[in-house]
Design a protein that fits this description.
The complex is a heterodimer of chains A (about 190) and B (about 350). Chain A has about 190 residues and is an alpha+beta fold. Chain A folds into two domains: about 30 residues; about 150 residues, ntegrin, alpha v. Chain A, domain 3 (Immunoglobulin-like, Sandwich). In chain A, a hairpin with a 5-residue loop joins strand 13 and strand 14. Chain A contains one helix and 14 strands. By secondary structure, chain B is mostly helical. Chain B folds into two domains: about 160 residues; about 170 residues, no CATH class. The longest helix of chain B is centred in the last third of the chain and has 38 residues. Chain B is globular. Classes of the chains: A alpha+beta (about 190), B mainly alpha (about 350). At the A-B interface, helix 1 of A face helix 11 and helix 15 of B.
Chain lengths: ~190, ~350
């Protein structure tokens, strides 16, 4: 009798364990909403017109205004440049080192997290923060000295990973860059 | 020889046994620190991508190596001055010394590797050398501690010391299996990720075997002390939850799920407390083996995701993919997991007898 009671007692707890871990809790966890990180950018350009040989400054302040995420990326690209030499990083407080992307480098595309890729058609700088806590402001300041007269164009965008929805990139409409991802477009008129 | 050195010699001879056991305990504790640092390092890599060799988890790991080195040196000193049973401890000391040699060599090797190839993945030559060294060192200490306790007929309380010796064996064994099954070893220079199908089998057979044999080592080497399995299981869950779950904000909610794993450990302990028959051991072994996917939450998911889903899993999505897979993995692996758990429970009897120098 004692043995039987013991078997029932042990069986009960083992059954509870498997029911909870295999059925009840997984269903509960899977029904919770996914975290959606949401990047936001503020871009400030020191000048809209300069003379050739002068520099201007581009300040980017970015943050995640959504849920906790894994990676927060800000990309600043220069479609008029062949080399990144005229661009100098003046301020930088992202948690990971900046990454320079050259023409021809393999890069991700269409917010796919690496499953789709393309090749870079112009140079860019990527700033990354990991993990991606909401409400923490990241600063990137660039000093740019154009080498040619004319319109100097800059693309700026931010992507958060996991890329849960259209909220996880900024901007979410407008001009598409070489990665088929939306960018804010800025320009400075460089006088001869 | 001066009077002072004669006194020193006497001191060493008088306390040789204690020095030997203290050395083994320190070596075990050091490996425990290395394994905790290693698990923390994996999480650190997943979450914040450290850009330098000089990180906190690495500091903890190499502090652990230092403690182990001191421990092995002490146990060697103790062993040299033993007046009896020297041969009984020779094997444990040899295994420990090979282990510590690998560990000590892995540090500079790792630094050189990092300097030449940047940050490496989980599986790389220096990391594998480190993990193998950890495993051997912890095995050596476990054998040394177990034999000492047996030879000296230590009391009930000190028998629980065996738990401290088994935890690092379990954790470092987990490190070996993880490095051979997790897809965390692809770098710019080398592709060391294991083949996904092979990794599937390594995880499905290896983890259940390791959990079961570790639990049964604690049970048998502590002279069947009630609570040994529960304490060992709790320590393992504590280490894993504090290094792999708690640092990841997105996994906080799932801590309640993880702590449920105490149930099979405690139930196995209770079952074997009342009935130590072969049938009970087989049942407990099978039960413990079958829990491996839950016990190795969350990272084991990456191994099975490679074969079953092939999703890109960023750290905050871990538990969604983990729970999406749980029923499928359980149904595919439960039979081999139970079989390996049972096999380990039976094998542990033979190995434990050898460790304790008993005749079969």
């Amino acid at each position: 009798m004692k043995r039987l009671l013991f078997c029932v007692f042990a069986g009960f707890f083992i059954a509870v364990y498997f029911i909870l871990t295999l059925f009840v809790l997984p269903e509960q966890f899977l029904s919770t909403e996914h975290l959606v990180p949401q990047p936001h950018l503020n871009v400030d350009l020191s000048d809209s017109e300069i003379s050739l040989g002068d520099s201007f400054r581009l300040n980017v302040v970015s943050e995640n205004i959504g849920d906790y995420g894994d990676i927060h990326i800000v990309s600043v690209a220069f479609p008029d440049l062949v080399e990144i030499d005229p661009v100098e990083i003046a301020t930088y407080d992202f948690t990971q080192s900046s990454k320079y992307i050259s023409i021809g480098d393999k890069i991700g595309a269409r917010y796919s997290g690496g499953t789709e890729s393309t090749f870079s058609r112009y140079p860019s700088i990527e700033a990354t923060t990991r993990p991606d806590y909401p409400g923490i402001k990241n600063h990137l300041g660039l000093i740019i000295t154009p080498e040619k007269p004319g319109i100097f164009t800059i693309y700026v965008k931010s992507v958060d990973i996991p890329h849960a929805s259209n909220l996880s990139h900024y901007p979410d409409s407008g001009f598409l860059d070489h990665q088929d991802e939306y960018v804010l477009v800025y320009s400075v008129n460089v006088n001869p | 020889m001066s009077a002072k050195s004669k006194n020193n010699l006497n001191f060493l001879q008088v306390h040789s046994g204690r020095i030997f056991i203290l050395g083994n305990a320190l070596a075990s504790f050091g490996i425990l620190l290395v394994t905790v640092g290693g698990s923390w390092d994996i999480t650190n890599h997943l979450l914040s991508k450290p850009e330098t060799f000089f990180s906190s988890p690495h500091a903890l790991m190499y502090f652990g190596v230092l403690i182990s080195l001191i421990g092995v040196a002490l146990s060697f000193t103790g062993w040299r001055n033993l007046r009896s049973f020297r041969e009984s401890y020779q094997v444990s000391l040899k295994i420990g010394m090979v282990g510590i040699a690998l560990l000590a060599g892995a540090g500079p090797f790792d630094f050189v590797w990092h300097s030449n190839f940047g940050l490496d993945g989980l599986l790389s030559p220096p990391h594998f050398m480190l993990i193998t060294g950890m495993f051997l060192c912890s095995i050596g200490s476990m054998v040394g501690i177990s034999r000492y306790l047996k030879i000296n007929s230590s009391g009930s309380v000190s028998a629980y010391m065996i738990i401290l010796a088994v935890v690092p064996v379990w954790l470092s064994g987990s490190g070996i299996l993880s490095s051979l099954s997790l897809p965390f070893s692809s770098t710019d220079f080398f592709e060391f990720n294991p083949d996904p199908v092979l990794a599937f089998f390594v995880a499905s057979f290896g983890y259940p075997f390791l959990i079961s044999i570790s639990m049964f080592f604690a049970f048998r080497l502590s002279d069947f002390k009630f609570g040994a399995m529960s304490i060992l299981g709790s320590l393992f869950l504590l280490v894993y939850s504090s290094t792999a779950i708690m640092p990841n904000f997105a996994l906080y909610d799932s801590i309640q799920f993880y702590l449920l794993n105490l149930i099979p450990f405690v139930m196995s302990d209770i079952i074997l407390r009342y009935d130590r028959s072969k049938i009970s051991c087989v049942f407990a072994g099978g039960l413990i083996g079958s829990t491996f996917y839950m016990v190795y939450y969350p990272y084991v998911m990456y191994t099975f995701n490679e074969v079953l889903l092939g999703k890109i899993v960023s750290p905050s999505l871990i538990y969604f993919v983990y729970f999406e897979l749980i029923n499928k993995v359980f149904s595919l692996t439960v039979i081999p997991a139970i079989a390996m758990g049972i096999f380990a429970s039976l094998l542990s009897e033979k190995i434990s007898k050898k460790i304790q120098m008993q005749r079969s």
